[in-house]
Amino acid sequence: MRMSEPRPAPVFVTGAPALDFLNSVAVPVDTEVEWLGSGEDLLDWLEHAGLVQSDVLQDMRRTAGPGELDAVAAQARALREWFRGFVVKHRGHRLTRKAINQLEPLNRLLARDEEFGQIAPRPMRGRARDAASDLEWVPLRRWRSPDALLLPIARAMADLLATADFTYVKACEWHSCTLHFFDTTRGHKRRWCSMSVCGNRAKQAAHRDRLTRTKKKN
């Protein structure tokens, strides 16, 4: 991507936040785009992903020391590429107990978390008429330092590992695409990150191939 060109919005096509994190570096058209290149990039991506509240991100911008957020972004990129190796190795297959042997780095990160919760009034707009209570449990986290921004990402990874059938974790089949997704379609026949992008590329390529074969026959 040329420096004069605006960076496209982050890609969210996976159906799973942990896989969206893998897709925070991608080739959406022809050139690789990195959405976690700096600390500010990381904050922007976390807000787009809905993993961290806006007020927490603003507080991080205000209180972080020089270079702290950039350092966390570098850690996020390293975490992403470690997780990519795990996903590439295991996608298409159900996770077994043996996979735990490869997850020590993730468990070490999760052990740093300081999650807690509070009872709060249920929002009026989200309150079901038949709800048993007007109160709800709200999960919260203590954000003691900028590197705590890695924790909701780690939790998203843990949720994927514990709840998803990795049989349906797939890579887009377009040859230059690096995106992953979780296939929740009926029959699990999804092949492309997006039908409007790579699916359309594949259709156009197939059409050109048919025209070429027809010309050769004639």
Structural class of the helices, strands and pairings? Answer: alpha+beta
Here the CATH topology of the domain at 17-111 and 146-193 equals: Jann2411-like fold
**Number of DSSP strands?**
6
Largest sheet: number of strands, sense, barrel closure: 2 strands, antiparallel
What general outline do the C-alpha atoms trace? globular
Mean pLDDT, as a whole number? 88
- The level-1 CATH class of the domain at 17-111 and 146-193: Mainly Alpha
Reported CATH architecture of the domain at 17-111 and 146-193: Orthogonal Bundle
**Approximately how much beta-strand content do the residues carry?**
5-15%
Q: Return the string of H and E elements.
A: HEEHHHHEEHEEH
- For the termini, the CA-CA separation is 41 Å
Structure summary:
Helix content is 43%, strand content 11%. β1 (25-26) and β2 (33-34) form a beta hairpin. The protein has a domain at 17-111 and 146-193: Orthogonal Bundle (Jann2411-like fold).
Give an overview in words.
By secondary structure, this protein is α+β, with helices and mostly antiparallel strands. It has a domain at 17-111 and 146-193: Jann2411-like fold (Orthogonal Bundle), CATH 1.10.3300. It contains seven helices and six strands. The strands form three sheets. A two-stranded antiparallel sheet has the order 1-2. Strands 3-4 form a two-stranded antiparallel ribbon. Strands 5-6 form a two-stranded antiparallel sheet. α2 (39-49) crosses α4 (68-90). The longest helix is centred in the middle third of the chain and has 23 residues, at 68-90. It is globular.
